[in-house]
Amino acid sequence: YNADGTYDRHKARGVIRGFLSQLGIDYYASYAPTTMLSTARIVMAIAAKHGVPLHHADIPQAFLQGQVNRPIYVTLPKGIRMKSQILDTMRQTLPETDRSRQPVYRLLKSLYGLASSPHLFSKLLSAFLTKLGLER
Predict the structure, then answer these.
(1) In this structure, what DSSP letter does residue 67 have?
(2) Which residue, 14, 111, 115, 25, is CA-closest to 66?
């Protein structure tokens, strides 16, 4: 907000309505490994005992980093519109009967709410750590 109470800018986060997804139709894997608190405590205790330094990393917008591995199509929420020039250009390529339909958009990267987002990020992180020379 500005000092006078008006909006400085509007922010929004795109979220997929993942509760509508169906396993085997919309996604095939949602598993992502997690660490139990007791496991983390054991690792920290062993590191402290042997004087091994530990580091913590936070990956901003982690679920937005994963590459989608199959076609996923979404529609924009009600009230959100694409710039009319782009939309008009897209509609010119459609047959006359389809021009009034709401367009769908293909995701290239994962979004919050997508059932497979944790799995996609896990695969990305695993590939990165393997490239660094770490093993599973």
Answers:
(1) B
(2) 111
Query: What are the residues whose beta carbons fall under 8 Å from the beta carbon of 107, sequence distance 6 or more?
Result: 68, 72, 73, 74, 114
Asked if residue 42 lies in contact with residue 132, where contact means CB atoms within 8 angstroms, the answer is no
Cα gap 6→2, rounded to integer Å: 5
pTM of the model: 0.59
At 128, list the tokens. 């990165």
What is the torsion angle, in degrees rounded to the nearest 10, for the CA atoms of residue 119, residue 124, residue 125 and residue 129?
A: 140
Per the listing, tokens 């695969």 go with 123
Segment 56-107, tens digit of pLDDT:
888 888 878 888 877 777 777 777 666 666 667 766 676 766 656 667 777 7
As to burial, measured by CB atoms within 10 angstroms (0-12 exposed, 13-18 middle, 19+ buried), residue 38 is: exposed
**Residue 73 has which token pair?**
């199509």
